[in-house]
Amino acid sequence: MTTVDLGAKANRHLWGHFARHGPGITPPIITRGQGVTIWDDTGKSYIDGLSGLFVVQVGHGRQELAEAAAKQAEQLAFFPLWSYATPTAIELAERIAHYAPGDLNRVFFTTGGGEAVESAWKLAKNYFKLVGKPGKHKVVSRAVAYHGTPQGALAITGLPVFKEPFEPLTPGGFRVPNTNFYRAPAPYQDDEKAFGQYCADRIAEAIEFEGPDTVAAVFLEPVQNAGGCFPPPPGYFERVREICDTYDVLLVSDEVICAFGRIGSMFACDDFGYVPDIITCAKGLTSGYSPIGAMIASDRLFEPFDDGKTVFGHGYTFGGHPVSAAVALANLDIFEREGLNDHVKRNAPALRATLEKLYDLPIVGDIRGAGFFYGIELVKDKATRETFNDEECERLLRGFLTPAVFEAGLYCRADDRGDPVVQLAPPLISGQKEFDAIYEILRGVLDQAGRLL
Ligand SMILES: Cc1ncc(COP(=O)(O)O)c(C=O)c1O
């Protein structure tokens, strides 16, 4: 099969996700990966600066994960969790519960992150109906946050442009401000803690506005991805936890990106010192060697379903697939054996310091993130923090930056779902050598981008 054949077939038959199609557009075809490097069908190599899509934590080409999948497929390729169980799903549920904080001991498997978010909202509604608070069904989430594409998860997502084609969505989603300190309103620009309190208090306000008897859950990422890596200000989650307890609203920590070492712990709520009622996760659980997701619920939420007859009427054929569960267990073994979380904690300051060397470029407005998860916000005017208009974003991000970075040998993402950012999330095995290579490429391309303005 030649490259030309594959490209033509892709253009004729493959429907890309969130992808443009049309004359002159052929997707890059990625054929191989090893460590932090990927190769395309012409043999050209790239640094995988985004771990695929915040997924490939342990790096590409791990034979033992391929072998774990093959071994399980030979033994038992498939059996559902619909009133039955499999050894790998049981072992993985126990292992995840062991890593999860507090009394989050019950694991409901899905095939991905959006399904985990969808499951969490359904559980929140169902739980409150069972405990005599049937009006509690609404959810609060943050502006510009991405929580997935099922129509419930999409109603939690705070990106109007992604929702508009599919309206009306599941009713009941309400938005509060996110924690973008770079764009904090007056009088909070110089006081991160006060800004955090302000943002958290908007959640209490939304609950009050909607009526506490109608609100079931708050969905928050530990570090919000869309918009470009907004870490929580100090004290933010402490206040959010208080608010959720006051109003009996569930706190859902959407860790589809942040779990499994991205910030430096198995679950990022531990990095920021809060215990949610539910964690949603996916991506890094298998490092992408097979798909799986999970909703992890507290004992309190499971209790009404533990009476021998009440059923959570929800499920997915492939949820907790035995092969994916086997791969997840082997993946978590790698985390333990290689000390990947400690590696991230130890090397995160070096990643930050390396990226911060870009600050002298006029186009670089803000560099923010945590662990191995960073966003670089690009601005038209550094002094005023003026951002780009739609036409400039189109020309700069899509027209120049995305292809130029890739051409220069770095796979990462230029994202304009909020203000324009370059997003970075290298595999957790990366070190200074990879940070330097990423920096060199970004420096060259961002410098050029600045000149094109
Ligand atoms: C925070 C968050 N939640 C949910 C999702 C949806 O996950 P999936 O694409 O696996 O459905 C994503 C995907 O990137 C995400 O970042």
Automatic annotation (TrEMBL):
<protein>
    <recommendedName>
        <fullName>Aminotransferase</fullName>
    </recommendedName>
</protein>
<keyword id="KW-0663">Pyridoxal phosphate</keyword>
<dbReference type="InterPro" id="IPR005814">
    <property type="entry name" value="Aminotrans_3"/>
</dbReference>
<dbReference type="InterPro" id="IPR015421">
    <property type="entry name" value="PyrdxlP-dep_Trfase_major"/>
</dbReference>
<dbReference type="InterPro" id="IPR049704">
    <property type="entry name" value="Aminotrans_3_PPA_site"/>
</dbReference>
<dbReference type="GO" id="GO:0030170">
    <property type="term" value="F:pyridoxal phosphate binding"/>
</dbReference>
<dbReference type="InterPro" id="IPR015424">
    <property type="entry name" value="PyrdxlP-dep_Trfase"/>
</dbReference>
<dbReference type="Pfam" id="PF00202">
    <property type="entry name" value="Aminotran_3"/>
</dbReference>
<dbReference type="InterPro" id="IPR015422">
    <property type="entry name" value="PyrdxlP-dep_Trfase_small"/>
</dbReference>
<comment type="similarity">
    <text>Belongs to the class-III pyridoxal-phosphate-dependent aminotransferase family.</text>
</comment>
<keyword id="KW-0032">Aminotransferase</keyword>
<keyword id="KW-0808">Transferase</keyword>
<dbReference type="GO" id="GO:0008483">
    <property type="term" value="F:transaminase activity"/>
</dbReference>
